[in-house]
Amino acid sequence: MGSNTVRRKMNRWSVTMAASALCLLACRTALAQVELTGSWTPRNHEFLTGDGLPVDFTGIPLSEEGRIRALSYSESQLEMVEHQCQGWPAFYLVQGPFGLKIWGETDPVKGNVLSYTIGGWEDRAPMTIWMDGRPRPSKYALHTRSGFTTGAWEGNTLVTYTTHMKAGFLRKTGAPSSDEATTTMRFYRHGDILTILEIIEDPIYLAEPWILSRSFQLSAAPQPPIGPPCITAYEGSVGPTAPHYLPEKNPFVNEMTTKFGVPRDAAIGKPETLYPEYRKKIPSQ
Amino acid sequence: MRVFFIAAFITLSLGAAQPPGGAAPTAKASAPIDITGYWVAFVTEDWRFRMITPRKGDYQPVPMTDQARKIADAWDPAADEAAGNQCKAYGAGAIMRLAARFHITWQDDNTLRVESDSGMQTRLFHFNAAAPPGERTWQGYSIAQWERPSSLKVATSNLRAGYLRKNGVPYSENAAVTEYFDLAPIPGGGQVLLVTAIVDDPQNLRQPFTTSSQFKKEADGSKWDPTPCAAK
């Protein structure tokens, strides 16, 4: 065996070792991800929808502008075709009562995940999370209900960021969201429990980021990937103006107080009511 | 060159397999996340069940058994006060759902201490698992372990029977509480502690009661406000 042959073998061996060493780092990172695909049933043990009464904005840190718009809203607006599908922006997946169906699209050659899609709701389109590093569209690009979402893994946590949502509702009884709203979601999986943390920012209608979370249970029963879509239709006799309430004229503003003893400031979403010290201002507490 | 790669391979392999030095590090030293500090509940969910005492019969949406409903319908806060049970709604099954501030510190290298200002309760998360003591307490006995790469799991048992909600929604002394603690940054600054809690109590719950609560980190304890338990 000549010295050149030995040198070539040694070089090949060195390259193999170097690749193995690098893989130890890279593969550990790859293995730090978890499986999210599958059917997830909601654990509806928290009352997040808040749609039992027309003026229940408890727990939402509304800005002054957001509050004025929320209190001007009349649910009779749902008679109007252009408002019928307005209540379900991307972030509704944590608030709503539905389960999740998550599936992925993989690169046929490399095998890496190009995107995740989350569906399973009624009335709204599935939401795609792009994992392929594509750039965010121009701020003038089309806004949709689901918006544009990118994702990346941070250890075992999938972190997503959504922009380009249409104006809609933070809560479908009228607390508004603007088309400048963005959402950061983090998907934490612990065994068969998936908890999604959602941080919604809206420079117009929120005084501070709104933070919500909900847990889902992995299910062997398949969740349908899509539900019936929201289809608009003429539903009544809308007059020449959009149904609404003028300032200080919302007839439901005191319902949370009379039915549940919730102070008015809390019912209309004043930010200070979200912190424990507010309890000192509640006479009955 | 060859020696370099061999050394790198061995170093990385060992790094992946065991801690340096061979000795098991303490829980504090090996913590993958730091959850110590002052945390305030950010009550964005279940406001009317957490910030005020809900009215009798307002149990939505707890998956209660018929027996649990009977117990809750008989809720009598005055009787609880008289019997010295005013802390029933401050036990480990419900405490992280309170509208409260929490102070988390290391009591020692293998024990996390979690104090609440509301109800002035103290929980201890033991990383060195030992047999639970015989006496049941509101906070029970908690065994903790890091779930790598970035989470804390806590399993609690040996509880005194308590309330999931202040209006008497019960859990039994046989309840088991499993919690996961995760951290997240808030865009623009700040940090969130997310606590996912699962209360398993077939006697009173038709399925494990699962909630997730958010806490914001505070710079210091200037808003810490110790307040004793109140049954009502």
Whole-number tally of structural domains of chain B: 1
Care to count the β-strands of chain A?
11
What is the average of the pLDDT values of chain A?
87
Q: Return the structural class of chain A.
A: alpha+beta
- Record the strand order, biggest sheet of chain B: 1-2-3-4-5-6-9-10-11
CATH architectural designation of the domain at 38-54 and 69-219 in chain A: Beta Barrel
How many helices of chain B?
Answer: 4
Walkthrough of the structure:
The complex is a heterodimer of chains A (285) and B (232). Chain A has helices at 3-31, 64-72, 92-95, 255-260, 264-267, and strands at residues 38-42, 100-106, 113-119, 127-130, 148-154, 157-163, 168-171, 175-177, 182-190, 193-201, 210-219. Chain A is an alpha+beta fold. Chain A has a domain at 38-54 and 69-219: Lipocalin, CATH 2.40.128.20. The longest helix of chain A is centred in the first third of the chain and has 29 residues, at 3-31. The radius of gyration of chain A is 24 Å and the shape is globular. The relative contact order of chain A is 0.20. Chain B is α+β, with helices and mostly antiparallel strands and 232 residues long. Chain B has one domain: Lipocalin. Chain B has four helices and eleven strands, in the order αβαααββββββββββ. In chain B, the strands form two sheets. Chain B has a nine-stranded mixed barrel with strand order 1-2-3-4-5-6-9-10-11. A two-stranded antiparallel sheet of chain B has the order 7-8. In chain B, strand 5 (141-147) and strand 6 form a beta hairpin. Chain B is globular, with a radius of gyration of 20 Å. Chain B starts with a helix and ends in a 14-residue tail after the last strand. Residues 1-19 of chain B have low confidence and may be disordered. Chains A and B meet through helix 1, strand 9, strand 10 and strand 11 of A and helix 1, helix 2, strand 9, strand 10 and strand 11 of B.
